[in-house]
Design brief:
Elements lengths: L1 H11 L3 H10 L4 H28 L6 H10 L1 H30 L12 H19 L2 H14 L1 H15 L2 H7 L9 H16 L4 H4 L7 H26 L5 H6 L4 H10 L1 H35 L17 H17 L6 H29 L6 H33 L3 H10 L7 H23 L5
Helix pairs in contact: 1-7, 1-12, 1-15, 2-10, 2-12, 2-14, 3-10, 3-12, 3-17, 3-18, 4-5, 4-17, 5-6, 5-15, 5-16, 5-17, 6-16, 7-15, 8-12, 8-14, 8-15, 10-17, 10-18, 14-15, 15-16, 17-18, 18-20
Length: 459
């Protein structure tokens, strides 16, 4: 179980936690932030419990988040879930290189805010270096991730302790509680922070993706909930303590990683260095975890005949090398796109969240179906799954139409991979319902392209 819990913690504690102070302060006051964490924490806990129950009740379904959508809603929807989750992982990895470069930019100006060509070169070299590490063996890479999951907590715990005993001001905190009129009401503030919370919680399903490697299915559920609660406490502490260090407007204006600016204001310049070192350890560990997760998802989709057979290929060490290469290549292509964005980090963060919401929604939906089935019916499980489903629907609403359309640009063309896999098996590509879904996704993608071309939506 420790390695599985390490996957959950390692996946969630990455770039996002270091960006929380300014990301929240730009959209909410202290009270709105606390309410947002209540909504996000409660909703994601219900989703984590759904993952836990499904891992125990449906041990026949390996790779969790991929298999659940297929079992509940058919092969095409299952493919949508797998591809969306995989694409989200690839884009999440891009945010890590952007944040690494922006952190190093304090020492090497050529890296700037993480979107310069020097930053792109750094990301390219680092990306393919990690590709070689993972290609040497999944077991060794997973063990390394567990080590970095522990190492990254040291600077973050120091951040919390130093603010509690040194930098926190109750007067500053109470002055930040209400925010200001420009932020809107509490409901607006909560909605505006939801994509940020989705991003930092990505990875809660990490243990379920690797469920086929677990010795006992109970370990998968325990690792998911243990990892989630540990990380939730850390996220809330980092966010709320920051509101007691600087006025909200100053927090919102901090460069990323904003946690460095907060600690620098509290204890001096060495605080920024501490966060910078912690960020590098944390982000590199998270990058490794997400590369492993993305590779496993794509490989498992091929094993389940939902993706082309060539993605089943493994190397002499048993690593799914075809899926790993596809993951690294697509991540690099998204890294290229950051050169076209006005704010590379925020764009990557929000698009990652938008892509991940659909797999979470489908998992919650399958959780409701499984809880209502005759074999596994339980009132408590029905309530938990229903809350998780309601929460994921709220995330779709919070995402807004712009990112929904951008996500479809990525989702729709992927249907070609699904059609390729179905043709390989000599199977009919779509049922009637699936054909309608395909048509809607393509129409949405076309609308998104038009919106980009006319400037209605921008990167």
């Amino acid at each position: 179980m420790p390695v599985l819990a390490g996957m959950v913690i390692g996946s969630m504690v990455g770039a996002g936690v270091f960006s929380l102070p300014s990301s929240f302060a730009g959209s909410a006051g202290g009270l709105g932030a606390l309410l947002a964490w209540g909504v996000a924490g409660g909703g994601m806990l219900m989703l984590a419990l759904v993952f836990q129950r499904l891992a125990i009740r449906r041990p026949d379904l390996d790779s969790g988040i991929v298999a659940y959508a297929k079992a509940g809603f058919g092969p095409y929807v299952g493919f949508f879930s797998a591809f969306g989750y995989w694409a989200a992982a690839c884009i999440a990895n891009v945010t890590y290189w952007v944040l690494i470069a922006s952190t190093l930019g304090a020492v090497v100006p050529a890296f700037g805010d993480g979107s310069t060509w020097a930053a792109f070169a750094l990301g390219t070299v680092g990306l393919w270096a990690f590709h070689l590490v993972v290609a040497r063996g999944v077991t060794q890479a997973a063990a390394l991730n567990a080590i970095t999951a522990v190492a990254k907590f040291v600077p973050l715990l120091l951040f919390v302790v130093l603010l509690i005993f040194g930098g926190f001001s109750w007067d500053t905190f109470t002055g930040n509680l209400a925010g200001d009129d420009a932020l809107g009401g509490l409901g607006d503030q909560v909605r505006a922070t939801m994509l940020v919370t989705v991003f930092v919680f990505l990875g809660v399903e990490g243990a379920s993706v690797y469920s086929r490697y677990a010795r006992r299915r109970e370990d998968v559920g325990r690792a998911t909930v243990t990892g989630f609660l540990t990380v939730l406490a850390l996220f809330v502490a980092v966010t709320m303590l920051s509101f007691g260090v600087l006025p909200r407007a100053e927090l919102a204006a901090l460069d990323q990683p904003s946690a460095a600016g907060v600690l620098e204001a509290a204890v001096g310049p060495w605080g920024a260095w501490l966060i910078g070192i912690g960020l590098l350890i944390s982000v590199l560990g998270a990058y490794l975890a997400w590369t492993l997760l993305a590779t496993e998802v794509l490989h498992e989709a091929a094993l389940q005949d939902d993706a082309p057979r060539l993605l089943r290929r493994t190397n002499g060490r048993g690593v799914p090398i075809a899926a790993l290469t596809a993951t690294s290549l697509v991540t690099w292509l998204f890294l290229v796109l950051t050169q076209l964005s006005e704010n590379a980090f925020d764009f990557s963060l929000e698009l990652t969240s938008a892509l991940a919401i659909i797999p979470y929604l489908l998992t919650a939906g399958f959780g409701v179906r499984a809880a209502l089935s005759r074999d596994h019916r339980a009132p408590a499980a029905i309530v938990v799954a229903a809350i998780a489903l309601a929460y994921t629907f709220f995330l779709v609403y919070a995402m807004g139409p712009a990112y929904a359309l951008l996500a479809l640009i990525i989702y729709a063309p992927a249907t070609l991979l699904y059609a390729w896999a179905r043709r390989e098996q000599g199977l009919r590509v779509f049922s009637r319902r699936e054909a309608v879904l395909c048509a809607l996704s393509v129409a949405g993608a076309v609308a998104a392209v038009v919106a980009l071309a006319t400037g209605a939506v921008s990167l």
